[in-house]
């Protein structure tokens, strides 16, 4: 670079020329002087070099500042994104905690409030071994049609009808004990435990009557039907202890199941 | 790169710096990972290094030292970064002992006040006329802008005339 003193002398003039600030006449005079004045020519060359270098420097600095500005903007964006992600994670975690809390509370509520599964109620009918009734051969429909009809209705489960038919059977067609026994039996099956007990007790209390043993079993079941569990248990124990009773096994089964506890 | 390489060089030479700006925006994160992985460089230093490399690349193009754009520009720039790391160069300091005339002027330019720097950048790099410079700088009119530019240029020239500039890192710029 030429000496500073040389250029300083011409700097204003050179700037006016370079920046287009001269009138056309001034410009023409300057160009003529430039051809004749060595010092001015050298100063002009130095000025051109300085401004060319300055353009390079200005470009460099412009780029540096733009990059720094962009860098700050990217940093700010990254910070904002990071903060947003942090907030999202925080919100997400909070929701997860709330959902888990609600689930835990719901589960605890369910555990503490649920009712134990109902134990299936044991009914007398589950253990009851029904009497098959008199067979058609035994009833002999030609001779005792009402008795045959009654037994048929009993087997079909029409207990009330069977009972009505039985009551119409002439007394000379059927023995008293048999009538009492089946009356008690039909009442039992029809759900009238109290009535059934009366008839079945009368039969069971006559040791010489063949149906007494069978009547005792049905009496026990009639007690059970009426929810008289201790009475039922006592009667069935008698049945279970009697080897000649056809319902011994059925009675034992009830007692072994231990279902007659109050 | 979307732009043809030859076009990139031409644009850079006429002062369109958008290619460099876009490169920095798109590759800053990748470069940071690379610098951390290979050289354990903290993020802020990696960003500064990439900016210095891009400035150096731009200077090479503007100077005419680089006449052909490398096929793999990213590899080329990362290689420049590696060389800087290996040489232990600071991105902020220009080595004045090896500095040319322009690099010396660059250091001296840093000693001008911020307004002077802006006026000269607007006029000599962006090519704004005095009216636009006045608008950008908040001056009353174009004449004020012209006088301001003239004053700044004179100041810079006087700095040049004072002889070798001090190291950029040794003294803080005075608001000239």
TrEMBL record, chain A:
The chain crosses the membrane at residues 93-112. Pfam families: TPR_19. Keywords: Membrane, Transmembrane, Transmembrane helix. This is Tetratricopeptide repeat protein.
UniProtKB/TrEMBL annotation, chain B:
It comes from the Bacteria. This is Uncharacterized protein. It comes from Hymenobacter crusticola.
């Amino acid at each position: 670079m030429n000496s500073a003193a040389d250029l300083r002398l011409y700097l204003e003039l050179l700037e006016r020329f370079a920046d287009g600030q001269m009138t056309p006449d001034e410009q023409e005079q300057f160009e003529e002087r430039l051809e004749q004045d060595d010092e001015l020519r050298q100063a002009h060359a130095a000025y051109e070099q300085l401004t060319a270098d300055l353009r390079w420097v200005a470009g460099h600095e412009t780029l540096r500042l733009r990059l720094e500005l962009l860098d700050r903007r990217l940093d700010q964006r990254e910070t904002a994104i990071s903060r947003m992600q942090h907030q999202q994670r925080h919100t997400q975690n909070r929701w997860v905690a709330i959902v888990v809390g609600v689930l835990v509370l719901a589960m605890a509520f369910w555990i503490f409030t649920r009712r134990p599964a109902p134990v299936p109620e044991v009914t007398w009918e589950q253990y009851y071994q029904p009497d098959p009734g008199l067979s058609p051969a035994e009833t002999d429909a030609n001779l005792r049609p009402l008795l045959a009809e009654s037994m048929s209705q009993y087997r079909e489960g029409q207990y009330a009808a069977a009972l009505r038919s039985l009551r119409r059977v002439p007394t000379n067609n059927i023995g008293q004990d048999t009538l009492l026994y089946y009356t008690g039996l039909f009442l039992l099956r029809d759900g009238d435990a109290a009535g059934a007990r009366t008839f079945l007790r009368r039969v069971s209390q006559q040791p010489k009557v063949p149906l007494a043993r069978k009547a005792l079993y049905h009496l026990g079941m009639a007690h059970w039907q009426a929810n008289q569990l201790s009475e039922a248990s006592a009667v069935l124990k008698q049945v279970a202890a009697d080897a000649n009773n056809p319902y011994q096994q059925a009675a034992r089964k009830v007692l072994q199941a231990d279902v007659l506890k109050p | 790169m979307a732009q043809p390489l030859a076009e990139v060089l031409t644009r850079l030479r006429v002062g369109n710096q958008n290619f460099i700006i876009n490169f920095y925006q798109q590759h800053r994160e990748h470069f940071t990972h690379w610098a951390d992985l290979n050289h354990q460089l903290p993020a802020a230093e990696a960003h500064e290094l990439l900016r210095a490399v891009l400035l150096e690349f731009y200077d090479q193009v503007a100077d005419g030292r680089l006449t052909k754009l490398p096929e793999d520009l990213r590899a080329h720039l990362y290689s420049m970064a590696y060389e800087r790391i290996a040489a232990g160069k600071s991105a902020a300091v220009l080595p004045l002992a090896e500095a040319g005339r322009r690099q010396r002027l660059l250091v001296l330019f840093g000693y001008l006040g911020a307004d002077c720097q802006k006026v000269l950048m607007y006029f000599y790099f962006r090519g704004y006329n005095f009216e636009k410079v006045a608008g950008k700088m908040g001056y009353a009119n174009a004449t004020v802008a012209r006088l301001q530019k003239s004053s700044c240029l004179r100041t810079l020239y006087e700095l040049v005339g004072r002889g070798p500039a001090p190291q950029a890192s040794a003294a803080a710029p005075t608001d000239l």
